[in-house]
Fold this sequence. Notes:
Layout: H1 12-26, H2 31-62, H3 68-94
Amino acid sequence: MIQASIFLFIGTTEIMFILFIVIMVFGADKIPDIAKGMGKGMRMLRDATNDVKSEISKSAEKNGLDTSITKDVQDELKKVKDELEDFTGSVRRKM
Length: 95
């Protein structure tokens, strides 16, 4: 997990500077509208991705392809991720 003060290798001061520039360029009254538009765009992208995934799986099932292997791989990845989070959680608590 990423530390609270570092986001994508950008420090807190850089984030504050970027926010200051955004406020200066767009103004404080337009920032909620910009965030709302970005949220809608992300939602549309997620919906489109889910539609493509469902179409691919429907097409694969219609053609008789076995799609259960992807579920097995996702389950295994989830188990590994959970185990890794358990391990790193115990290491972080000891530090």
